[in-house]
Records
---
Amino acid sequence: MVNYSRSGPAAGRTTMDRAFAALSDPTRRAIVARLARGEATVSELAAPFPVSLPAISKHLKVLEEAGLMARSKQGRVHRCRLVPRALKQAEGWIGERRRVWEHRLDALGAHLQEGDR
Amino acid sequence: MNPNTATEETTIELTRVYRAPRARVWAAFTEPEQLKRWYAPVAGWTIPVCEVDLRVGGTYEIHLQPPGRDAYVERGTYVEIVPEQRLVVDLGIAGEQTTLTVELLDAEEGTEVRVTETGYSSREIRDRHLGGWTTMLSQLEQQLEQQLA
């Protein structure tokens, strides 16, 4: 999923909107800052906050849905890590237009090949 | 765009080589029925409307349709047309001014396509959208790169 337009009334809930919405919350920013130092389990992430584990899980889900974080399961332990690509993608115009054109030029390649048959 | 607003110029450039003659690649960039088949910006999007008036000063209109949402309308004006070689378009994306240049060059066994897009995004618009996040994200990115290094 790629963000096409980052402004205008029709922009809707694009990837970048989701990323920035996710980062608008101080708890989630703190979680991201913690993950920037390295992988962590859900309980490690929850430890500094005076909120319940389910509340932290909710924050983690928002970060996941925004493409900023991924988790892997080792037995019963969920390990969380940042997704560097998503952070890079949130950089704005350059990343956005580059993604659009990379997708298009791939599609153009497929289109040109189809014509050969 | 408000001329008093500070603007920042940004450019992307991509190059690909296709095993197809220049005439065919040119047609893919300029014929509506062909554009409909590959110009969508994202997988899963469609192009229900594509109108092209290929002459200098002529315009094109492409409706980029995400599933289940309103289409984005991309409108461009052809600034320079050198058949099978060079196409320059002024386009407005989300109210911002962008110039798109497509160059076709002969390559071994095909055509080299060079796409350059230069955007002038007003700092005001950018800041409104990004707030202080850009700084935070670039800091995070640096940290991540150190981590991964």
---
Amino acid sequence: MGKSAVHGLERLNDLYNRKESVAKEYRKQGKKIIGYLCYFAPPELISAAGMVPYRIMGRMDDEIIQAHNYVEPLGCPFIRNCFEQDLKGNLDFLDGRIIPHSCDTAQRLYGIWKYYKSASYNYCLNVPHKVTPWSRDFFKRELHFFKESLEKYGGVEITDEALRNAIRLYNENRAMVRELYDLRKEQPPRLSGSDMFKTLIVGMAIPPEEFNALLKEILAEVKNRPRGGEMLPRILFWGCIIDDARLFELIEESGSWIVSDDTCIGTKSYLRRIDTSHGLMEGLAKGYFEEFRCPRTDRGPDIHRFDYVLDLVREYDVQGVIGYTLSFCDPFKLDYPDMRDYLSENEIPMLLIDDDYSLSHLESIRTRVEAFIEILE
Amino acid sequence: MSHAANEMSRAVRSLETVRNSKKLLPSFFSRENAENRKVAWCMQGVPTELLEAFDLMPEWPENFGALCAARSVAPRFIAAAESEGFSSELCSYMTNTLGYCKRYCDLGTEPPESPPQGGMVHATMLLGSGYLCDPRIKWFQTIGTRYFDIPVFNSDPMSPPIDRDIDDPRMIDHHMQHLRADLKDQVAFLEKHTHKKFDVNRFREIMSISQKSIESWRRVYDLRKVKPCPMGSEDYFSCVIPQMFMLGKEEALTFFEKVYDEVKDRVDRGVGVLKDEKYRLAFYGLPPWHNLGFFNYLESLGAITVFEGAYYIGPPVDIDLDDPLEGLAERIWKNACWHHRTSAEAMPEICNPALQQGIGSKLLLRLIREYDVDGVILHRTRSCRPWSWGQVHYRTLLEKEGIPALIFESDMTDVRMWSDSKVKAQVEPFMETIAQLKYGKID
Amino acid sequence: MRYAAGLDIGSKSTKLVFLGQDQIAGYYVIPTGGNSSKAGEKILELGLSDRHLGQDDISFLVATGYGRHSVESAKKVSEISCQARGIRSLFPEAVVIIDIGGQDFKVIKLKKEGTILSFAMNEKCAAGTGRYLELMADIFDMNLNTFAKAGDTASDGVEISSVCTVFAETEVISHISRGAEEKEIISGIFTAVSKRVYSLAQRFIGDAKSVVFTGGVAMNMGVAKALERVTGCDIQIPAEPQISAALGAAMIAREQMPDPEKGD
């Protein structure tokens, strides 16, 4: 593989292989670590409370065994896997667990998870399915209740200043990630998609200050790299949560560059900027709900709700889209046929990989990906 | 084996009122002339009282799914949806409808393979609801994008998570504000697309009938506590039809009153569904609509089902009908609070603008005692996660109480997943377990 | 002269095609057994010795199929691309290809000029694959050849509604015990396979009037006829459906050969 770990991104790879290590360090120092399952819960609020946010992730290699004593072997395999991690004790370093009502499985599991293994702080943040003036107000008020509960648990007050500061830090993260994305517009890009995803995954596991430092290093290194490399087909990755870089590595090993994405860990989160000019909570509600384009939010029966994906395709000079859906994921699986056909109308081929969060069919995935890239060549 | 050869495919109803459903509920069963009325495709969570107030004729794709399943047509529509790229794991009511729409669009007319009563009357609008599960907000969105260019409205009643303090006035206000706004938005949409003004007085009358229907129907629940049990699931699942689709109509009220009278009469005469009632069971999850004879099969083993988890409604709530729309919002919230207090930790959203709920875990354990239940059968419908999720949890709770519980799997629409022999192979040993526990021997 | 060679290491069988000047110079089929790499080596040895050739007589080798990554010296190309090339050379107008193999089935849609537009695969379950047919043939205690001829090619047969192979087996057994005609049951099995495949293929077929059917299962006339009925399309089958992907691989190999060697 001609794209081995770039010298200097060693720290990234090390952190990627020991994701919980930083949070565990902070815990030793007496900080509270608050896990959250999905991006509807703004980590800014957690940071502003003086606690360390940690996005809960699963382990694709782990089979789900214990969890099926408590829940059905149906529904999102990623969320079930996360529950399995906790039952195995791998999430014991978390003091808190926030599960936003992002989807059915999340909402249903909240009660059952809490029943069988409660964290010392549990919170279910409600999220409307539609964007309307009253649902915006509802979400904003939800954020106020959420803030209150964090304050109660932490025995602290989340001051405006602390929140403003936290938002500023996260906005800095976002700006630097956007810079890295801009670099990927080059042909060929100087940063592989797999390294970009590893960066994003690590970013979910470490506090914003640490991520800032890491991003500065990575930016400096990538900017110093010489131009020129293999000219390969350019891919945009669309899909459900994926917290394991192996799939990206497989896609790029098969002879392509992943130059952009439409995922919650990528562009959905980082291309925006939290705008506090109309208020702090107003800014969070706008960025985390109103403008957050997850398929679970109803945007109406308009094919142009996918225009932003076409925009990304043009902006990053993408030749093909690879989609990734998790078993039982209704929101994504129901968007897929429309998305695929719309892209096809615009002459962009799309390949779908359906997975039960295990990559157990790695070889047949490889065949599909290779065949797809051959089409793009 | 063809579907008609299935032993369990047809149910034999016990109550005469239920056997006369088609005659007693003509506006549902013999779908009325749609010429002068606008047709809306609707789903559970759309309050039928509003439909009635706007004189809309509803079609129910979920019910269509059950009908297609019963007539063995569903696999064809589901296959059409799969060919579009809709995953086979998706809700089969939905894939059945999507496949139907695809076929309709391909042919330019109703697909000939539609069930004998015909396909769904063509819609002028789609009324969805975010209540209960994610597919419901995507379902009509997809139809509106891919198949029919007609207006779509999805309501979004927000429900309090299980550990919220629902007595906190701020929490009540938080949810009520949203419920109100959502209902008003729906009324505005209906006014726009029916070109009719919302008639508050008419709606008040309809809500009043609806309240009476709920009370009538609810009274029947208690009658089933009696031994021998006067009514089983094969009748219950017919009775939920007016509850789900016809609240606010006089027909429904009359029907429920008749059901109550008939069941009360049986109780007075000490008559049960079974001459020899050996076992009392509870049934959880969606029924196998295409094989409701399953309950007759249980009866052949001496077992009667005395209450069901699906569609179970709480005690009737008092609402203020001066402002009937506010009254509807109140009904939604108060019903939700009742569910919240029954420990709905494994349930989907509990704020339902219509009337269909389930049983929280605390209530389940209480009802087991009140109805003197020997065992619980839970139906895991593979493509319906809202109704399937939580069954493992309930089984754990039941077994802790010493109540045997069986989870068996099939699907509510996709008949390809049903197998008589597979079901029997699970039910028989389960009944033997119960027999041992109850009588110390296997019959 | 030197040859272009295409090697298709499938999960059940391994195929090798030698391509001369635009013609198949020879082809071989062996069972893969448990070891892809050994199967690749074995078939090359077999082919070369049969033609009295040495390794050097192969100018370029392309490997495809499930076991392609085990062949170090070959260029690896997906079986989708190879199948498309192979079939297109045999059927210059082909736009839809259905490939039913031992463990999976694929559908490939080509543009008018022959390049691939899109494709889909099903390898998650046995229904619709050669494996399904094997299991069913076992129930009748027949080998695959006999089984293939035992249906009524003009009839849809009995209805087998289960999508799951295991349930379908149960259904077949109950048809047998009910006393249904063997011919009708077997026709029903072929129809069921076709329906599973059609469910994936429908979107790709669209308005096309004909489909090329290849892969090991294409040797089964009963399935081919059922596919014709189910799709409503004219079904075309290569003379040797098993080797069409290997042929495509060899053609791609030929393109990689230096010009003088092509002997054009």
---
Amino acid sequence: MTSAASVKVSTASVQGAGAGSSPSAALQSIEVTPLPWAAAKAVVKQNHYLHSMPGGTCLAFGAFVGVRLLGALTLGAGPRNAPSLVAGAEAGDCLTLTRLWLSDDLPRNSESRVIAVVLRSLRQHTSIRFLLSYADPSQGHVGTIYQATGWLYTGLSAVMPLYDLGDGVARHSRSVGHSFGSHSVAHFQRHGVPVKLIPQAAKHRYIHFVDPDWRERLLVPVLPYPKKGANP
Amino acid sequence: MKVVDIAIEKLKEAPWNPNRMDEGMLRKLRASVEKYGIVHNLVVRPLGEDDYEVLSGNQRLKVLQEAGFSQVPCVIVEADDARARVLSQALNRIRGEDDLGMRAELLRDVLAAMPADEVVKILPETPESLAAATSLGQESLVDSLRAWENTKGARLHHCTFQLTSSQIEVVEKALTRVLPQARQAKGDSPNDRGTALYILCQSYLKKGGSR
């Protein structure tokens, strides 16, 4: 299993051009179509290394070869701090690429092909201006696929620690905020709830401008791509 | 291994069987048995002098009892308690995962030959989930994205506040007073409480706020 996908595009205008100048016949046999949320969840839970469907998923795509469903890509709502990354950006201008799984049965470079189709479709048919995605160095990921598809690397993003509220369960800060209305440590301490913060490794952050005119709005520096094996 | 027809009154449900089936699913199982008969042997082990405990097929046993079957074809295995439980779990839990795309194609083939209402009588699907399953891979990427884009204007923005119990009491009291006015207001938002909050804030600002 890889984190890539193969794609066949359903219309010539969207899927005609590949990531490269002439995608192979195998890559062209991949069709990218919308995937209902429930189907995307089933595929992601079964196959993606995180085995979970992220909250806030807005769009999901399937990678088909013939009738076989061999991959899924999900896009979720953009981060709250999008305006601090891109001048004038609002939440609706941005999505986050949250999951990408492609079967090993797909040919090489399928990831690039699938991502290229999705990006082209977003550019042609939506007003999304840019995408973000993250690669987790603690999993040995440096974002190879984003590098291969020309995303801009903006360094390591600050990651909130996980919260243990005294029961040994490590919770994401968003989950704590959702359940309790706050993830303020002081707030929990005031109410006598012991909080243990579990640090998480920062993640590599990549950005891709669906609308190239927005590139000049980027507020953070673009850095050289991280290399596999190098310490983040 | 032998398949033996056993009198149904000698077959006993395994009390330790964790598998539960709700009435809706039992109805589908009944419909399947009515349509196809017994096409799947039960797996049993001897219990006491003359009875048998069902290791696999406990739900089918219920349906067959209701349907008035007198004999049921069974595979008899010798197994102690632990092995019986393991075999039961193995028979019921070891299965592959569907390729959802291939399954969609299979269901489309089925629907080409059978009406959907007949299919949903037997399969776990509802009419809605059957329609969703068969549409997999058939939707247009362009149409889907355009439709998603078109809904953007209709999306209301979430505005989340975290309040203590005493704070929310005050906010609720204020919103409740403004709600009748909010219900009369002709605005873009169908959410009365959101509109009430908007009216409150607008009124505050009109009065100059705390400037």
